[in-house]
Amino acid sequence: MQTSWIPFIPPSASTLSGKVDALYFYLTGVTIFFVLLIWSVLTFFVIKYRRRSPHEIPRPVAGSHKLETLWSVIPFVIAMSMFAWGAQLYFQNSRPPQNAIEIYVVGKQWMWKIQHTTGQREINELHVPVGRRVKLIMTTEDVIHDFFIPAFRIKADVVPGRYTTQWFEATKPGTYHLFCAEYCGMNHSGMIGQVVVMEPTDFDNWLSGNTNQQSPAVAGQQLYQTLGCVSCHGASGEGGRGPALGGVFGKPVFLNNGQTIKADEAYIRESIVNPQAKLVNGFGPIMPTFQGQISEEQLVQILAFIKSLPAQGTQAETPAATATTTASPPARSASPEQDRQEVSKAKFL
Ligand code: CUA
Q: What's 234's domain CATH number?
């Protein structure tokens, strides 16, 4: 839909933006229609049924069930159409696709720090290729901020101690606004930047023009050494006194309390800052907390390193799975769908 002639409307530059606009135009259209309908009927009745003489007494009017049913059912159907349309867009937008490029975003009073998995870092700028799905994994060093790109019609809070995600696919090369959309202190209004959408070849050139920087996974590996993670989890995540980390990301983990959870970003972060919260089956509460010793940026780097570790031959942390003969070990599952099946199977057992 061509919307550039409408004043104040931001440019439309993602696969989502046209859909969001269409919903908003529908809401606006319905509102305008009913405003006009109600006002014209009101005006008509005021004139038609005006009091014509000072002694006039109106005749009582009988109610109509038909009419009342009609004016309840029609608005109900309209309201539900808004709900269904909005919910459908919401779910589409809140589930990042599997094959997206991942970019880490850390908010901080008052700037946006961005790290690409290839090592490039930017501040208050985000370079992305056109026509590729991009998933943002976001957190903050201090207070709540909100990562908002109006041209893509996406916006999500970044919350201390948590990872939130959002995704987009840019459709038009260009430079777009980036805002913080949550009041976060004195220079909140200055916490702005730009998103640069480039043709894929330009983007590749841009990436290769910044190669002197370490990828988050490599930086994470160094932290893994210097913080001493290596002494319990092994140099390549093969495990030891601590559970093996190789291939763990995205897979089900069996806990001491009998629960099974998926090793996602939030779980790995929690296991670093609050290791006692969820103990892997077969391991004691011996890991010290790294709360306060590690910044959010460093956490993101360790996360990238753990994600990059290859799966190990043996899976010390999954005794429940190896105990069954029918289920293959979850570490070897090939797809998220299979993971989910493994998880539900394990729960059932
Ligand atoms: Cu950060 Cu407002």
A: 1.10.760.10
Ligand 1 centroid to residue 147 C-alpha, Å: 8
Atom of ligand 1 nearest to the CA of 144: 1
Measured CA to CA, the distance from residue 120 to residue 132 in angstroms comes to: 18
> Which ligand 1 atom minimizes the distance to the CA of 183?
2
Q: What's the domain range around 126?
A: 101-208
Q: Which residues pair with 116 in a beta bridge?
A: 103
Model confidence pLDDT, tens digit, residues 272-306: 888 888 888 888 887 878 887 788 888 888 888 88
User: Could you tell me the distance, in angstroms and rounded to a whole number, from the CA of residue 195 to the centre of ligand 1?
Assistant: 17
Distance from the CA of 118 to the center of ligand 1, in angstroms? 27
**Which of 153-175 are b and which e, b meaning 16 or more Cβ less than 10 Å from the residue's Cβ?**
bbebbbbeeebbbbbbbbbebee
CATH for 108: 2.60.40.420
In this structure, which residue's CA is closest to atom 1 in ligand 1? 145
Entry pTM: 0.66
Q: 221 and 150 in one domain?
A: no
81-118 per-position pLDDT tens digit: 999 999 999 998 888 888 899 999 999 988 999 988 88
Angle at 269 between CA 149 and CA 95, to 5 degrees: 40
Segments in the chain below pLDDT 70:
1-4, 210-213, 312-349
